User: What shape does this take?
Amino acid sequence: MPRVNLLPWREADRKRRRQEFMFSIVAAIGSAALVTLAGRGLMASAISHQETRNRALETQITALEKQIEEINGLEKQKQALIARMEIIETLQRSRPEIVHVFDQLVRTIPDGVSLTGLKQTDRKLQLKGLAQSSTRVASYMRNIDASEWLTDPSLDILETKGSGDTGSEFTLNAQQENPQLATNPDQQVAAAPPKGPAGARQ
Assistant: This one.
């Protein structure tokens, strides 16, 4: 029976398989490289697109912050104008009111009493003066209590100086009142002639 030598065929087949394996490895590496490059390109494109969007958003945010600062500035100016208007309205209402108060201060002073000092804190009045007797001071307080523009008289200090007709020094407190605002708070005080007190001079 003749012998067939298969060694060259097996060697060629082994070499062919080795070449196919190497080719597969190279193809896989090439494919992986292409996928990696494509992924990096897509990632770089996405990052660039997002950075562009971020810059656009930052620009819009900066513009909005500037607008907000302008709005806050306008709001502060508005509040300042409102406060000034309220002060002006208060002064306009108090101008005729203070005329009434000073008129009542004069009308409520009885004979034998003279004022030496006047201090106003908000709507509180502090009156200092001289009186011939404590009875005159009591009469003065009754006149203040009967006035429409002055109320709540309270004696703070009463000092008798010496004896005889030297008189007494007194300090009393009273509240400034506005009968027109008491009936209608939104109504401004009319510049009408002030009324006399309920009590007469004594």
Remarks:
- The CA atoms of residues 79 and 85 lie 10 Å apart.
